[in-house]
Amino acid sequence: MLELWHSPNFLLEILNKTDSEIETIAVDIVLLTISLIYLVSKIGSEVCARLRLPAVSGELIAGVILGVSGLNLLVFITGETTTLPPLIQGFLENVYGLTDTEALKVFLFNGKVISLLSDIGVIILLFEVGLESDLNELLSVGRQALVVAFVGVIVPFFFATIGLIYLFGVPPITAVFAGAALTATSIGITAKVLSEINHLKTTEGQIIVGAAIVDDILGIIILAVVASLIKTGQVEINSIIYLILVAVAFLVSAIVIGRFFTRFIVNVVDRMQTRGQLLVPALIFAFLLAYIAHRIGLETIIGSFAAGLVLAESNKGEELKRLLAPVVDIIVPIFFVSIGAKTDLSILNPSLPSNREGLVVTLFLITVAILGKLVTGLTVWNPSLNKMAIGVGMIPRGEVGLVFAEIGANSGAVPSAIIAAIIMMVITTTFLAPSWLRFVLEKPGQEKTT
Amino acid sequence: MLELWHSPNFLLEILNKTDSEIETIAVDIVLLTISLIYLVSKIGSEVCARLRLPAVSGELIAGVILGVSGLNLLVFITGETTTLPPLIQGFLENVYGLTDTEALKVFLFNGKVISLLSDIGVIILLFEVGLESDLNELLSVGRQALVVAFVGVIVPFFFATIGLIYLFGVPPITAVFAGAALTATSIGITAKVLSEINHLKTTEGQIIVGAAIVDDILGIIILAVVASLIKTGQVEINSIIYLILVAVAFLVSAIVIGRFFTRFIVNVVDRMQTRGQLLVPALIFAFLLAYIAHRIGLETIIGSFAAGLVLAESNKGEELKRLLAPVVDIIVPIFFVSIGAKTDLSILNPSLPSNREGLVVTLFLITVAILGKLVTGLTVWNPSLNKMAIGVGMIPRGEVGLVFAEIGANSGAVPSAIIAAIIMMVITTTFLAPSWLRFVLEKPGQEKTT
Prior knowledge:
Two copies of one chain form a homodimer. In chain A, 74% of the residues lie in helices and 0% in strands. The first copy, chain A, is built from 17 helices and no strands. In chain A, helix 10 packs across helix 12 (300-312) and helix 15 (387-393) runs antiparallel to helix 17. The longest helix of chain A is centred in the middle third of the chain and has 35 residues, at 237-271.
């Protein structure tokens, strides 16, 4: 008998759980967690669809219900945590016979994996947003969309930042961060709502979508600037200029070089014979641009957004969108639900006196977020257009606003009350705008819900 | 100024890497690792497609090149590891300025995440295999397919197990495990090859596919039995009977109860209005059945396979397959490449005398694997059928064989030489069968490569 075939004593391994067994249990827990996330996100989004609200609001609320502000089932612990929520602790002890330490280990890993999937989720989400954006569409609605976009970025940013500093005594960096979170209209939500009420192809619709695209790019550049500010803690004019230059240079060169590179990719893809011949190279491109963006000091999502913009212009854009859709459907809910789950709404509980100023700040941010976009309607010079509709169409914040909340929460540098206020702002504007937009456009036309 | 708004000192955080910064770096490393996996898997599968070999062989070989037997870029370390491969160590030190401990931490997490994605990948792969299986198709080719399937399972299993025990002195449990790994024909590879040479709808093609389906189910039952054996270390006839009963009961009740449940799901799905309305509930179903299967002592993949079988019968089966395909395209390569990367082929290096017996075992397993399936052709009673083609069509092993290798490797109970021999058997049969099948079917017809 060969030495080679000797194997360890199996029975011993069963008595004391090995690392590998704990990892097997971790797979179970991750499966359960993802199933739970899917279940609540689908219930939430379907309920919202019934109420004619955007699905994303439902996923956020589902996350809030599942997370620290609700059932305490989806919580993200750190290495310093010593106790788990009782329900989870009991489940891991009774069903798997884990000790306290083992249960903590499994649950810490579970949280890190869900966070990582959420990070990959937002990278893929912005890849899709890039794919849905269209530089040419923007050029056709021209100057008007640009004016709406810039006014809609500058006004809420300025008033929110100044207001937070002078009315509420918030430190400048935190105020700039919160102000920046108010800038970007959600292109996904806006386009979805417009298409639901058949107004996507009207001039108003095109201006809104065009402005939302510029907005998105501005929002992402602002995000890069602010994310760096929050890391270095300083408002250095040099580093702002550097970052704007890097962001613009990255986007421009990604688009210009990317156009040539895309032809090469498309050529290669056309010659491929195996499954996944379009999606896999496209994801390599998106992940590598995300990686490069991160390495030069920007956010990963800027890279995947640029990859989407570039690939949208190739003749594979439509097919890629179709293939990416199921992937988005299963990974992006993890992002939205996690964001909701991390939101600690107890900070907004008005029965505690210490929370009241936080609540006032939330109301202030919501007001500025709404008024700051409504005024963009006043910049519309064509008298035949529905100014109110354009202003209202710009109100919903979404993905980028939530990304701000995520980055702020992860940095540890933004107080959780501000994070909660930003998320409340996103939820409120997201809830408000669709019904309002339907109301001001008066004739809703044939309704499509899918 | 409110206490609430006070924030930590950012500059301090940059000097010493915090856990959250290490996690950000881990995201980068996971992105790079996945991109690398995608790149090599695509190169490997495309090269194999050019050589008219199945794409999966290319992904396995790509993994071997990337892993411990090759470039040492995709390696899975454990908590006890103290040094990283020099290239990775250098990269993490120079690019990210990580200390040795931090680099180990990042890389350990990276490996665990890739392993977990690989686990989810195989669950989704078997969900797709279930979706592609068709109980009715099997019934139409009837008894013939059943005979081919049973003979093709029993013959290789019996001769491999007996041979390993009596010729090579392998302990019975390990021998049973290796024998079991030889049983299941790869339905994916076989169906793919038959469709490539336009023989899927011939009687031979239908018998092969029907037998491969039964094979798959038998293989999965055997897997359940053997995986449990390897954990308890005993060949207890009671536990075998228990497991066969549990496996059969699980599959039967999943199918019977699942049929009713599927109507409910389909009804709910038809009323849903938001994105992902089919894929997300289907994945909840697959993940929960995977979880339940695991809890009652079977493997997770039996659950997702059963979920696929059930959903394939609903009127949503085709749409679900179409939606699942892009997901499979991006997650399954992580499984195949990881399997390859974990394969330590140095054990088969013939220049070391201690390896030579291992090599002989590998050759023995490959021979039994081929002859054991070829004999199934002799059981074909219709003289007008191409017996050789049916035998050859059953030769390729694939997913289930590799799952055996994975479970064996993770259990720590199967010597790595046996694991390597199983993987070599899978690679060899996978390589051999397609060209051979094309040869014996003589008139290949119109060739389609997609």
